[in-house]
Amino acid sequence: PPRSTLFPYTTLFRSRSTTSKHFIGASRVTIEGNRALSDTDVTILARAKLGPIEVDMTSYLLFFDRFERRDDGIWRIASRTAIYKKDRIHPFRPSLLYPLVYRLAGFNRFPRPYRHLATGLERSGQDLAKQIVENATREELELWRDAKIWIATRN
């Protein structure tokens, strides 16, 4: 039977019951002429309902930004990529029901470092990025390599 028949309350991160806090760390910046690279640690904390269970979710990521100083002298973000490191979710209070609810939530549809955050965002109606960059992968190495070439190319 469909998941909704087995457990009709499996709604994660309903907007009216979710609170979140984003902690933005200090940025590390490299400037070359009119271009700059920046990486910033980010931690997202959220409390939400997973079915009938209140849960805490923590997501760790890095904002990787490219900046350009335009002809008007103002620096602007040229691009931002989130590099997802890991995330976790656990019940706010002990719950014998939590393992069952967790299995029914469908977290495994998303990559491991992004699965709890992605599920919550999707269920709250937000659009997800088509492709994400995971920490310590070939895609992350290529992102850094391409950025170093980009910053060295002066315009």
Q: Give helix % range.
A: 10-25%
Strand order of the largest sheet: 1-2-3-4-5
CA gyration radius, whole angstroms: 19 Å
Biggest sheet features: 5 strands, mixed
Unreliable spans? 1-15
The SSE string, one letter per element, is HEEEEHHEH
Label this structure with key terms.
155 residues, alpha+beta, 5-stranded mixed β-sheet, elongated
Secondary structure layout:
Layout: H1 3-6, E1 19-32, E2 35-50, E3 53-69, E4 75-91, H2 98-104, H3 115-123, E5 133-134, H4 138-152
Parallel strand pairs: 4-5
Antiparallel strand pairs: 1-2, 2-3, 3-4
Give a brief rundown of this model:
The chain has 155 residues and is α+β, with helices and mostly antiparallel strands. The chain is 23% helix and 43% strand.
